[in-house]
């Protein structure tokens, strides 16, 4: 049965706010994982750029005594070379964690705002959004 106009608008705002919150949780989780995993690359590239005479040319002691232009260039190249596998590792960790926490099951369709009596869970089970009871762990995402 369809909802009234004001009720539909209110439910649309509630569902939109909930979906936005789930999106922000996913974004925050991705940001934290990528920052932690890519930290070695960030540090290596930072020191390479900081000590290179053509870029920043810091007057720090380690730049004068340890790193010259050739070693700074090597650090920059090394940082960009190790970035690709670390991005793959970070994405694998994020996808595994999001699947384990069933974060994508928490997104709700807007049809719940239009019609009365819809289920808040499209599946019989599924995630920290209140749908986790009785979830079959053998179900794959692509099935």
Folded structure, characterized:
It is a multi-pass membrane protein. It is built from five helices and no strands. The chain has 143 residues and is mostly helical. The protein has one domain (5-112). Helix 2 runs antiparallel to helix 4 (69-101).
Report the count of strand segments: 0
Helix-strand sequence: HHHHH
Percentage beta strand: under 5%
Q: N-to-C terminal Cα separation, in Å?
A: 30 Å
Average pLDDT score: 80
Give the structural class: mainly alpha
Question: In angstroms, what is the radius of gyration?
Answer: 24 Å
Q: Label the overall shape.
A: elongated
Low-confidence stretches: 131-135
Number of domains: 1
| Multimerization status | single chain
The helix tally amounts to 5
Helix content: 55-70%
User: How many strands, what sense, and barrel or not for the largest sheet?
Assistant: none
Task: Furnish the topology, listing elements before pairings.
Elements: H1 5-37, H2 39-51, H3 61-65, H4 69-101, H5 111-114
Helix pairs in contact: 1-4, 2-4
């Amino acid at each position: 049965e369809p909802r009234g106009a004001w009720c539909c608008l209110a439910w649309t705002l509630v569902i939109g706010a909930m979906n936005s919150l789930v999106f922000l949780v996913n974004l925050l989780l991705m940001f934290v994982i990528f920052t932690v995993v890519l930290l070695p690359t960030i540090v290596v590239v930072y020191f390479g750029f900081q000590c290179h005479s053509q870029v920043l040319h810091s007057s720090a002691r380690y730049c004068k005594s340890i790193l010259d232009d050739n070693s700074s260039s090597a650090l920059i190249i090394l940082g960009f070379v190790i970035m690709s596998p670390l991005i793959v590792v970070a994405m694998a960790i994020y996808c595994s964690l999001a699947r384990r926490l069933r974060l994508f099951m928490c997104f709700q369709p807007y049809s719940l705002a239009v019609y009365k009596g819809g289920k808040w869970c499209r599946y019989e089970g599924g995630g920290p959004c209140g749908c986790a009871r009785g979830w079959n762990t053998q179900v794959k995402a692509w099935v």
